[in-house]
Amino acid sequence: MKRLRWILWGLVLVAGAAFAALLVERDRPRPPAAMQPVGDVAELGGPFALTDQDGRAVSERDLAGRPYAVFFGFTHCPDVCPTTLYGLTQMMAALGPDADRLRVLFVTVDPARDTVGQLKLYLSSFDPRITALTGPPDAVAGMLGNFRAYARKVPTGDSYTMDHTALVYLMGGDGRFVSTLDMHEPPDIQLGKLQRLVAR
Description:
The chain has helices at about 1-25, 80-95, 115-125, 135-145, 185-200, and strands at about 50, 55-60, 70-75, 105-110, 130-135, 150-155, 160-165, 170, 175-180.
């Protein structure tokens, strides 16, 4: 009987220690979810060759030495894409003159419909410093792969829509991944990330 009591007390002590450890882990500060790495961040980004809304060729070499943001979307998107681009437009206004140091790329995931002309028309509603990119499907797929972003065509009756990654990737002037921007975050958090990005 005495031995059983000792065993029970031992189990209580072990459980208590485990619970204390969980409390310490729970209370340890953690970065916000949108700041946490996306896969192996060392491999995010890379070479690409696409065309902007003015018909000019754009590659990763044109971004060298300047921080930039990348958002994947499409012009027929009903809500996420226009909301994100409008949010980025507001953030660029809030950055003031520092926004001129930032490149913002809107890369279509629907190159079949998003021609150069369609992208130019679509971007007329947003900050004129935002650059839209399109190209052959394999070139677009290559850039999606560079950022480990997701895009999938979803049939809708006689047409289709696109599922896609909704994060904004923030890249330093050295071409390395810095963070992500989640448009559900408070505006001051988003602005702080962009301020730190352009200050690098």
